[in-house]
Amino acid sequence: MLSHKVNTAFFLLVILLLIVLSFFVAIAWWMFLIPVLLWVIITGVGSAFIFTDYHIKAYCKNRDVKEKKIAITFDDGPTPETPKVLNLLKKHNAKATFFCIGSQIEKYPDIFKAILEDGHTVGNHTYSHSPKMGFFPAQKVKEELEVTNSLIEKYSGKKALFFRPPFGVTNPNIAKAVKATGHYVIGWNIRSLDTIIKSENRLLNRVKNRLAPGSIILLHDTSQKTVNVLEQLLVLLEQNKYEAITVNQLLNIPAYEE
């Protein structure tokens, strides 16, 4: 995949060549805007879509898995809806991975402990999940990760190695912070859009139509709608002989520091 450093270096070289060329032939001023515009577009797409690995490597699926195994992940918890999710997972003998917000762990510590007690994996989803995260300096992002990791360790006794950036957005500052903390960035290849789509049938069909071995599904344990869809999804997985496992099992990488 094209990286931010390579992209930036390439377009700087193009602009430099245009400047040099302008000493020999007439070049319209707008010609200099073309590489700038292309750089902005590529950088915007690379920052918004985590699977591009534009700023930092992200694990979005396991292409080597041939067996019917997938990972269900939940973002933005724990919340009062999380126990309903846990009950369904237990009922269907499924495991999942929860990317938890630090402030939510503080708010619902007992629910967070229930996630751990049920044998699910937990990961870091920053402390605040701020919509301004993309504008935070690297040190501020690092602090968000460290505070949340401390909360996870407080209840689990383990240092979490999984991190999912809010909204799946990455940039140079987030990449710098993650490299400093040593987290694995975990993305997804099936985005349910359960925070946007209102129809439960549309949600289920969206996931169903994209289902394949090695997939990582993104859901949110924040609404009754998602709980309802999860129940149907778990039945669908059973009917199609799929096994729901944790992200660390699917990717064969450690979820916690040894």
From TrEMBL:
Origin superkingdom: Bacteria
Key words of the record: Carbohydrate metabolism, Glycosidase, Hydrolase, Membrane, Polysaccharide degradation, Transmembrane, Transmembrane helix, Xylan degradation
Protein name: Putative xylanase/chitin deacetylase
InterPro entries hit by this protein: Glyco_hydro/deAcase_b/a-brl, NODB_dom, Polysacc_deacetylase_ArnD
GO molecular function annotation: hydrolase activity, acting on carbon-nitrogen (but not peptide) bonds; hydrolase activity, acting on glycosyl bonds
Gene Ontology BP annotations: xylan catabolic process
Domain NodB homology residues, every copy: 68-245
PANTHER family per record: GLYCOSYL TRANSFERASE-RELATED
Transmembrane feature ranges: 9-30, 36-56
Entry annotated with the keyword Oxidoreductase: no
